[in-house]
User: Which sequence fits this backbone?
């Protein structure tokens, strides 16, 4: 899998990078939430691992921004924020799954496999996006 890792803590990001690469994943690290949407728009990722507490935009804002831009890449939130309200908010912002730190690395890998199996649900809407252009083939409309 090609994974975008969004984590600002050097110890955690180093651990995740090493483990994911040992499991044969291609991983790109971003430490600032404000860069995620730009990267996810320019590159194709199979999954995004997203921390909540980030400099720039927080993970909730990042997730909502990804979805608002039509980016359907599966998002797995990894966060120390473990309250039910935080988990619900993360899922309501568009995350596909939420994993609380600390976690077992094997569980992280299993959750990545699960979101990869489910695939991308937002393509089912049929809307196509290119910059400001939105095309709805079913309705035969295009809007800018």
Assistant:
């Amino acid at each position: 899998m090609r994974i975008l890792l969004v984590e600002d803590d050097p110890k955690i990001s180093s651990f995740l990078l090493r483990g994911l690469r040992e499991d044969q994943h291609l991983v790109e690290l971003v430490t600032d939430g404000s860069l995620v949407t730009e990267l996810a728009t320019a590159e194709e990722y199979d999954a995004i691992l997203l921390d909540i507490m980030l400099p720039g935009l927080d993970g909730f804002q990042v997730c909502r921004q990804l979805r608002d831009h039509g980016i359907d890449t599966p998002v797995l939130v990894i966060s120390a924020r473990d309250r039910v309200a935080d988990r619900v908010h993360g899922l309501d912002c568009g995350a596909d799954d939420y994993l609380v730190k600390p976690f077992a690395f094997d569980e992280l890998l299993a959750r990545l496999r699960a979101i990869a199996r489910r695939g991308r649900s937002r393509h089912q809407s049929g809307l196509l996006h290119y910059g400001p252009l939105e095309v709805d083939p079913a309705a035969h409309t295009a809007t800018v």
Summary: The CA atoms of residues 81 and 100 lie 7 Å apart.
